[in-house]
Specification:
alpha+beta, mismatched DNA binding, 2 domains, binds magnesium ion, 11 helices, ATP binding, ATP hydrolysis activity, Heat Shock Protein 90, Ribosomal Protein S5, domain 2, 8-stranded mixed sheet, binds adenosine-5'-diphosphate
Length: 327
């Protein structure tokens, strides 16, 4: 079973950023309103995610790590089929098979919780009491310490840190209601307070995208025939490194999509300059039945039922908003 987990780990555990994404999704699933991420060496040496969610029952702690997975993989030949189905329900098992993982959790406010520790294939999930406030802490050390082949694919500390940072930013812009902090090598990188007011949201956007973005940004909020587009767009001229300042969410989920990027690019190119990267933080909201988010296992892709309608709505809304400020 541990071997199966290591194989499975290739699906969800590619690098520190993917570990963090899985851990944070678990925290949000558990209803957390505060996420604290601490990493060392770009996350290669250590990843610690602490949340204030509902926690895990003592009896469920070993299960959370052991639960698999194996029923899905009977032979290597199945791997391809599994990959296309998408792999859910084994993030913790996968991570713990390729790292030293400690899971500590408490369900109440007694200050008392429980802890299990696993180290690679050594599945000694011994349960021990541990002090912990309500919520869960997952501590992941020495990623890929027992899988040198996979370890080779890790990039420099700086590159891995950048990917972690990108993951945190993408999440931060989708959950203004949750406070999020990131520390790297003991130093604070982000400390984002929760808040759903316009001022609080714009403060967070400025923290994530930089003050220059917010100073140049135009706020838009357009609603037509069941579609709503809101957020901030900025003239592409304000900074050189804005290629990464493109955040697009469909019903709260970060996505990359050809229909979307085409519509956005055309609207910008039409009104502003050609050949530059537009910068934007945009949220498209529509009837969940009009969009299929399960096209791709990582769920970064979507399929719109009426992509023509979505394209024209995006293009039209952005074009009008941009033309208003720069006729
Ligand atoms: P999945 O999230 O797909 O169920 P995971 O391996 O990511 O699979 O997590 C296994 C289980 O462990 C979850 O279903 C959940 O019950 C529990 N769990 C994991 N992380 C947390 C957390 N931060 N807070 C509460 N429960 C958690
Ligand atoms: Mg999960």
């Amino acid at each position: 079973p541990r071997l199966a987990n290591q194989i499975a780990a290739g699906e969800v555990v590619e690098r520190p950023a993917s570990v963090i994404k899985e851990l944070l999704e678990n925290s949000l699933d558990a209803g957390a309103t505060r996420l604290e991420v601490e990493i060392d060496n770009g996350g290669i040496k250590r990843i610690k995610v602490r949340d204030n969610g509902g926690g895990i029952d003592k009896d469920d702690l070993p299960l959370a790590l052991a639960r698999h997975a194996t029923s899905k993989i009977h032979a290597l030949e199945d791997l391809e089929a599994v990959a296309t189905l998408g792999f859910r329900g084994e993030a913790l098992a996968s991570i713990s098979s390729v790292a030293r993982l400690t899971l500590t959790s408490s369900r109440d406010d007694s200050g008392q919780g429980w802890q299990v520790a696993v180290s690679g294939r050594d599945m000694q999930a011994a349960l021990a009491p541990a002090a912990h406030p309500r919520g869960t802490t997952v501590d992941v050390r020495d990623l890929f310490f027992n899988t040198p082949a996979r370890r080779k694919f890790l990039r420099t500390e700086k590159t891995e840190f950048n990917r972690v940072d990108e993951t945190i930013k993408r999440l931060a812009l989708s959950r203004f209601d949750v406070s999020i902090s990131l520390r790297h090598n003991g130093k604070g990188v982000h400390n984002l307070r929760a808040g759903l007011g316009r001022v609080e949201m714009e403060r967070r956007v400025a923290q994530v995208c930089g003050p220059a973005f917010m100073q140049n940004a135009l706020h838009i909020d357009v609603e037509r025939s069941g579609l709503r587009l809101w957020g901030w767009v900025a003239e592409p001229a304000f900074s050189r490194s804005q290629a990464d300042l493109q955040f697009f969410y469909v019903n709260g989920r970060a996505i990359r999509d050809k229909v979307v990027s085409h519509a956005v690019r055309r609207a910008f190119a039409d009104v502003l300059y050609h050949g530059r990267h537009p910068a934007f933080v945009l949220y498209l909201e529509l009837d969940p039945a009009a969009v299929d988010v399960n096209v791709h296992p990582t769920k970064h892709e979507v399929r719109f039922r009426d992509s023509r309608l979505v394209h024209d709505f995006l293009f039209g809304s952005l074009h009008r908003a941009l033309a208003d400020v720069r006729p």
